[in-house]
């Protein structure tokens, strides 16, 4: 993969279709985006409990530029709204996370979760139908045995391609608090689900039993000082996982050390700069997302204002720190009043761990090249994302005279925010969710 910084002025462009709905409700807002391990499929979940799977177009000699386009492959209702009568609580259908399982055969499998229940879905194709049964007619009606005079051998007849999504497992009743993340282990047999105070380990074949591997709930809830915000398995060490907290710390645990991993092996936390201490320090230091690099050597964390890269062998400070929207530091008071300060932005690596991407406000998303230390701000919007158009870098003016191509920090639209992004595992193709719109950008093709 070429160095991203060479492409910064024209890094990604949209394909010929922007996937969206013109008028939307709260249920249409996209809440998670995830590529599968090959990048051929892209799944999105929304607040209405739906999962939409997009499949990449196959390359054709007549239209080679269509290779990056994704079209709808399957749509299904993953979760429904529920009501907990014991606690008098409504359980939203919103999809919090989607994680693909490595492909083992012709079918695809993915895990989806709302606040309480994780489901394993199988997505498969069917282009043939058996016909010629002895005891049933072609419409499935049972025949009168006395009318059967000959023995027939059933045959497979070709039919129009059908894509079916069927629930294979339902993992429920294991979380008291809201599930914020799920992660599939590299052993392809287990996965973990994480809520505010506990992490549970599941076997993909067993739905009625899970093992609690982290529990930070205090005996007295009044003594609660932090909650778990995200967790992820190491990409190739099945015994290792990390979880982040609302206090801005990351703990690395080894499941070989003990059955209950309350005692961590490594603790990553950056000492706070006293000069930046304020009323909002604890809120903005809360980590909203944590990701292992593909190599497994580094961690990436996202707090409210920054993205940080940590070396697993260096716990006392991050290896790199990138400012996402430092110009908002002076606006923290108003961001607190309108609850924007509690927004949970995600972050992703590119396939070679050389570039980081995360979202911001005004439908801006940011990219940071670790090799050249260059960064760029791009915008996902209908106005500047016409098919085959080149995305132009955007700049935010903090003070003084504003240039023609700059936008003032006071005129940023805080209701338009990029919380969820995904990067193709091996190519320069990204998916960006902006409210109810899904934008897919690809590297410039000559």
From TrEMBL:
Q: What is this protein called?
A: Serine/threonine-protein phosphatase 2A 55 kDa regulatory subunit B
PANTHER family the UniProt entry points to: PROTEIN PHOSPHATASE PP2A REGULATORY SUBUNIT B
A cellular component term, taken from the record's GO annotations = protein phosphatase type 2A complex
Q: Which family does it belong to?
A: Belongs to the phosphatase 2A regulatory subunit B family.
Signal sequence span is none
Alphabetically sorted, this entry's keywords are:
Repeat, WD repeat
Q: Does the keyword Repeat apply?
A: yes
What subunit structure does UniProt give? PP2A consists of a common heterodimeric core enzyme, composed of a 36 kDa catalytic subunit (subunit C) and a 65 kDa constant regulatory subunit (PR65 or subunit A), that associates with a variety of regulatory subunits.
Output the Gene Ontology terms for molecular function: protein phosphatase regulator activity
InterPro entries registered for this protein in UniProt: PP2A_PR55, PP2A_PR55_CS, WD40/YVTN_repeat-like_dom_sf, WD40_repeat_dom_sf, WD40_rpt
